[in-house]
Amino acid sequence: MVFYSKKICCIGGGYVGGPTMSVIAKYCPNIEVNVVDINKDRIKSWNSEDLNNLPIYEPGLKEIIGKYRGVNLHFSCDLELKISEADIIFISVNTPTKKKGIGAGQAIDLKWVDKSARQIAKYANGHTIVIEKSTLPVRTAETIKEILEKSPRTKENITSFSILSNPEFLAEGTAIKDLENPDRVLIGGEDKNAIKLLTNIYENWVDKKKILTTDLWSSELSKLIANAFLAQRISSINSISSICEKTGANIKNVTKAVGMDKRIGNKFLNVSPGFGGSCFKKDILNLIYISNHYGLKDVSKFWEQVIKINDWQQNRISHLVVKKLFGTISSKKIAILGFAFKANTNDSRESPAIQICKNLLEEGANIQIYDPKVNINQIAKDLECPQDQNIENQDQNGSWNYSNSLIDATKGADAILILTEWEEFKLINWKEISKNMRFPCWLFDARLITNSAEAKANGINVWCIGQGEI
Ligand code: NAD
Ligand code: UGA
Predict the structure, then answer these.
(1) Distance from the alpha carbon of residue 246 to the mean position of ligand 2, in angstroms
(2) Are residues 23 and 164 in the same domain?
(3) Cα–Cα distance between 420 and 347 in angstroms, integer?
(4) CB 120 near ligand 1, within 6 Å
(5) Ligand 2 in reach of 342 Cβ (< 6 A)
(6) Whole-model pTM?
(7) What is the 94 CA–ligand 2 centroid distance (Å)?
(8) 183 within a domain of the structure (yes/no)
(9) Whole-number percent of the chain with pLDDT over 70
(10) Of 273, 342, 372, 461, whose Cβ has the fewest other Cβ atoms within 10 Å?
């Protein structure tokens, strides 16, 4: 029997829990890592023999799972047992925006965190370190502490808790790389021993200098602010893309010139149809909610604008498609290349493609969607409509279909709209594609990634974000 120095339980086996725990298991062979989830299907997929069927796609993930699953990395639905055995528990559950009730549309829905805390209180055994891995409103640790300390227990032995905040900064598509080589690891808390223990775990693969320890509230808030700053940069550059299109300036040149200033830096300045993903919008909404809560109206208005520009960018792209296609796209075939919110992920949460496709459907288009990783069921869920069904909107009907390939999606298309920066779209052979399109036709490159000059040379009308019609 293997002796493990510590046992970890992670509540929530999603985009964060799965990869994060896999990396801990990889670098800490003396720790038993258990990922638990209430979603049985998800756990079944994490345990699936075919590593191509894992619930999430991340480059490098299946190799780690293949090597450590069943060794010191386990996935199960047995919350009671795994919580009771754990020395350290990560809470890595979803924290979406509240849909109804107080703070609806802005505040974070803490019901999954609340439930996790109650499960921990009920089943934990002995001294347990509870770590906030989910992104949470500042001062949530206070709530967790109260639930842990005051909830009824099933165990007779005395249980005590230390709470730490250890937010996650990984980005999807590069999760393993980010986890293995993070810019920093942030640990907030009061209990020095607990902080030391968690620091020791990370020191198995992260340079000491990158491990930052703070108080709880600064740690919780820093996570929200990092996301807010990143999203703000995207809205800034996206707002400038429209000025470039109006004035004849080229966004590529502007970005390069601005980004070469070391104080500004060149990262996160890629123009796009808007930021997506499960977190930027909800974290900024939460920041707006917190600002209003503390009476900081001007602060909340500042951050509101970041979201407004993001919505505006998505809507202006779909309006532009209609305008360029002679003011009507009714029954016209539009190929959507890319549905994921960014490349290298199967995640479409808050993807700009959703709103853009909905707008095009409202205008009566027949859209043909191709994405290398997002599946048909997910798209149907996002568009709130099964494929091939007409969407009634006054007199107009739109419909969508799923394509298995780029070639299939673009056959007979009046327009191609690139929404995700998949590698495959960078390499499109426009000579071949143009042969099967219906002329006059358009390419709209909303990621500025494809060889637009080649498309133009093959008779396709071309519009590029931040450049306009070329
Ligand atoms: P997710 O929805 O992919 O996964 C959350 C999982 O928690 C789900 O599988 C759900 O079934 C499970 N769960 C919920 N309540 C549970 C309970 N009581 N017991 C057991 N399992 C439970 O979410 P995610 O993308 O992994 O995000 C998790 C947190 O991490 C969020 O707070 C998010 O803001 C933050 N975060 C996400 C990312 C990212 O790239 N997705 C990056 C950094 C931080
Ligand atoms: C983001 C942050 O980058 C992570 O640090 C953070 O941990 C995570 O949110 C989270 O808290 O969930 P993620 O959403 O996975 O990660 O992906 P990003 O690479 O940040 O991209 C977010 C969105 O912004 C995507 O839609 C992407 O296409 C867009 N983007 C990104 C741009 O439009 N331009 C850019 O220059 C960069």
Answers:
(1) 27
(2) yes
(3) 12
(4) no
(5) yes
(6) 0.96
(7) 17
(8) yes
(9) 97
(10) 461
CATH number of domain containing 341: 3.40.50.720
Ligand found nearest the CA of 341: 2
> Does ligand 1 have an atom closer than 6 angstroms to the CB of 345?
no
pLDDT tens digits, 408-444: 999 999 999 999 999 999 999 999 999 999 999 999 9
Residues 138-142, mean pLDDT to the nearest whole number: 95
Ligand 1 atom at minimum distance from 135 CA: 32
Structure token digits, residue 212 = 């930052």
Distance of CA 216 from the midpoint of ligand 1 (Å): 20
Task: Give the model's pLDDT for residue 420.
Answer: 98
Cα distance between residue 134 and residue 460, in whole Å:
46
414 domain-assigned: yes
Task: State which ligand 2 atom lies nearest to the alpha carbon of 352.
Answer: 26
Name the maximum alpha-carbon separation found in the chain: 77
Q: Is the CB of 276 under 6 A from ligand 2?
A: yes
263: in domain: no
**Catalytic residue status for 10:** no
Flag whether 282 is in a domain.
Answer: no
Confidence at residue 392, expressed as pLDDT on a 0 to 100 scale: 55
Instruction: Answer yes or no: do 208 and 341 share one domain.
Output: no
Domain boundary among 186, 214, 242: 214
Query: Of 214, 229, 247, which residue is a domain's last?
Result: 214
Number of H helices, E strands in the chain: 18, 16
Stated as kind and residue range, the H or E segment containing 186 is strand 185-189
Question: Which atom of ligand 2 approaches the CA of 420 most closely?
Answer: 28
* Nearest atom (ligand 2) to Cα of 226: 5
Mind listing the pLDDT tens digit for each residue in 368-382?
999 999 999 999 999
Q: What is the dihedral angle through the alpha carbons of 152, 155, 160, 164, rounded to the nearest 10 degrees?
A: -80
d(CA 392, CA 397): 5
Tens of pLDDT, residue by residue over 241-299, are 999 999 999 999 999 999 999 999 999 999 999 999 999 999 999 999 999 999 999 99
Structural domain boundaries enclosing 90:
7-214
Tell how far the Cα of 435 is from the centroid of ligand 2, in angstroms. Answer: 36
Average pLDDT over residues 304-310: 98
Please give the tally of structural domains in the chain. 2
Looking at the structure, tell me whether residues 25 and 141 fall in a common domain. yes
